[in-house]
From TrEMBL:
Domain PTS EIIA type-2: 493-636
Domain of life: Bacteria
Any one of the GO BP annotations: regulation of DNA-templated transcription
SUPFAM superfamilies membership: Phoshotransferase/anion transport protein, PTS-regulatory domain, PRD
Protein name: Lichenan operon transcriptional antiterminator
UniProt feature coiled coil, ranges: none
Length: 636
């Protein structure tokens, strides 16, 4: 466990580019600050100069080149490495493995092997594989296709923290017969070949196909070819088998049989995003799926007041869902390295995706996990990007007395450098303009104004890059100030002392939700159905949107009015696969849907800044002091 904690700590330090206190790291890991200091000493001891993690008055900071190199150093086996090695031994041992001999082979005790076997059973969930025990001998039972899914699961466990490390994938899956350099070439050529056949595949999907092709190549070379798959190949599969066969021969130096080629062509088809040059008639979109997606999109658009009901968007998303359904029914998992960042950076978009996924899952009876929801969020985000940009445009007035062309040069430079985010709607060339009448968001002036405020930026006539950056910074401050001002007003309306719990002492999400829901239910704001639906929403996808905050809520806005119950943990509590310090259970009403986006996104924004979180938690001992500190942080 100690080495595993060290690896988790390394990941946290690499993700944060600033200084972090031992207390903050301890909360994120669920340990004491003393343990963090011990882990850091052990991490530094693993480097020649002991400088992987820097320490100072502000806490700890990664020496990034050294720490990243340490993370890539796999000369020391971690518990997860050992677990994966045990799985690979089981996959290769047709007659099973002997626990005593395996313990000797892995240089561990028999008790350690027994403990690892218990963890292996957890890995086997959903793979149609199981362990058979006879005395000290253990066998892995299940067909070849199920065994390959297990190998894929080992590789996918490496795709954490937004990384896609080919060598780590290869090592985890035990692809000793496959050259890691072949992955990139296979992926690039596969994408090009699919484009020539009229298909488009995104980079993550193409890399996933390359991984499965490498697994197939490795298994065939070890004597475990797929003899056949279910059903006859479709015309599309037959079009793809020649391509996959050629790429496998060229890059993995293996000749795949009909069973493997049909299986891989099926995997490719479940990962195709949209036909590139195909006509509508060639797409063969399932009418039931299209109708379900249309219903889900319309429901989400109405519920969250977002503009996503558009024919081309619905069609593209339906194509994606059609492949998602195929993947689910074939137990073909996909990973999205952007899941964590999408959830924390775009919580509202992710929430809309959860709503769509929930509707689709219920109507089509499929299971949709977080990585698949993240792909739906990417579709939603692409659709909303234009409207979100339009909403963030700020107006500006240029004040520039002097030579008659000067203001035009200034206007042209600003427009060319800052693009559509700032719209210049007025130009004042008088030396004594009516400053009080300037009502735009920003005032960009080459002369000193009588009074300065946050919207005024004084500039030289000829702009430098530093001047453009000052304009951008002023615009960012203004946008953030407006967003957080709205949040401040909403919080004063929806928070109350009777729904503030500190400490929130629990180690279970459902227990925390029900405890926070109790004061809201007592006031008649929510009923038992709302509480149960909040628990169900949590099971769909974790609402831990930052490293500090979880925002549990129901998908249906059925509260009698909008209200928030806040729970503060002393240290942190486990939430999904993370740990959080603050839990904000939000009850939304249908009549106040407009508040959803303000509260949801801006609350996540506030609690994504570690320094702000620590200040609020350190000083907010009771409801009044907590609210004071929260408002103070919002006001900057």
């Amino acid at each position: 466990m100690t080495r595993q904690r060290q690896d988790q700590l390394v990941a946290l330090l690499l993700r944060d580019r600033g200084w972090t206190t031992a207390a903050a790291l301890a909360d994120l890991l669920g340990v004491t600050p003393r343990s963090v200091r011990s882990y850091i000493a052990q991490i530094n001891a693993r480097t020649a100069d002991g400088d992987a993690v820097e320490s100072g008055p502000s806490g700890y900071r990664a020496h990034r080149p050294v720490l990243a190199g340490l993370r890539a150093d796999h000369t020391q086996e971690t518990p997860r490495d050992r677990l994966h090695r045990l799985v690979r031994v089981l996959l290769e041992a047709e007659d099973g493995l002997d626990i005593f001999a395996t313990a000797e082979r892995l240089f561990v005790s028999e008790a350690t092997v027994e403990a690892d076997l218990a963890r292996v059973r957890g890995l086997l969930d959903g793979t149609e594989l199981h362990l058979a025990r006879s005395g000290p001998r253990v066998r892995l039972l299940g067909d070849e296709l199920a065994q390959r899914r297990l190998v894929s699961r080992l590789a996918h466990e490496e795709m954490e923290e937004g990384t896609f490390d080919v060598e780590a994938l290869r090592r985890a899956a035990g692809l000793g017969t496959v050259d890691s350099a072949a992955f990139g070439a296979f992926t690039r050529e596969l994408t090009a070949e699919l484009a020539s056949l009229g298909w488009y595949v995104n980079e993550f999907a193409a890399a996933d196909v390359a991984l499965h092709s490498a697994i197939a190549a490795d298994r065939v070379l070890r004597g475990h070819a797929l003899q056949s798959t279910h059903g006859d190949p479709s015309p599309d599969q037959r079009r793809l088998t020649a391509t996959i066969d050629s790429l496998s021969r060229r890059h993995f130096e293996v000749s795949l049989g009909p069973g493997d080629l049909q299986h891989l062509s099926s995997l490719v088809l479940t990962r195709v995003v949209a036909p590139g040059g195909a006509t509508r008639e060639q797409v063969r979109l399932d009418p039931q799926i299209e109708a379900t997606v249309r219903e889900a999109v319309t429901h989400a658009a109405h519920g969250y007041l977002v503009d996503i009901v558009e024919e081309e968007f619905i069609r593209r998303l339906s194509l994606h869902v059609q492949n998602l359904v195929l993947r689910s029914r074939e137990h073909a998992t996909v990973r999205n390295p952007l899941t964590r960042s999408l959830k924390s950076a775009y919580p509202m978009i992710f929430q809309v995706a959860v709503s769509i996924a929930s509707h689709v899952a219920q109507r089509l009876d499929v299971e949709i996990h977080d990585d698949e929801i993240a792909y739906i969020a990417m579709h939603v985000g692409g659709r909303l990007e234009r409207s979100r940009m339009a909403e963030s445009v700020l107006t500006a007035t240029i004040v520039c007395p002097g030579y008659y062309e000067l203001h035009e040069l200034l206007r042209s430079r600003i427009a060319g450098a800052l693009g559509p985010s700032i719209e210049v709607v007025g130009v004042e060339t008088q030396a004594d303009p009516d400053w009080a009448a300037l009502d735009t968001d920003l005032v960009l002036t080459t002369i000193e104004p009588p009074q300065r405020d946050e919207r005024t930026v004084t500039l030289p006539p000829f702009l430098t890059q530093a001047d453009l950056e000052r304009i951008t910074l002023a615009a960012s401050r203004l946008r953030r100030g407006r967003r957080l001002a709205r949040l401040r007003e909403e919080l004063k309306r929806y928070l109350s002392a009777d729904a503030f719990i500190r400490p929130l002492d629990t180690n279970d999400e459902e227990q925390a939700i029900r405890r926070l829901a109790a004061p809201l239910a007592a006031r008649g704001i929510i009923d038992q159905g709302y509480i149960d639906r909040t628990v169900e929403r949590e099971q769909l996808s974790s609402t831990a949107f930052t490293e500090a905050l979880a925002v549990p809520h129901a998908l249906q806005m059925t509260a009698s009015r909008t209200a928030i119950a806040l729970g503060i943990a002393e240290g942190s509590v486990p939430w999904g696969d993370a740990r959080v310090q603050v839990v904000a259970l939000v009850a939304f009403s249908e009549e106040e849907r407009e508040a959803f986006q303000t509260i949801f996104e801006q609350l996540v924004e506030v609690f994504s800044e570690r320094a702000s979180v620590q200040r609020i938690l350190r000083r907010g001992h009771d409801f009044e002091s907590f609210l004071d500190e929260l408002v103070a942080v919002i006001d900057g």
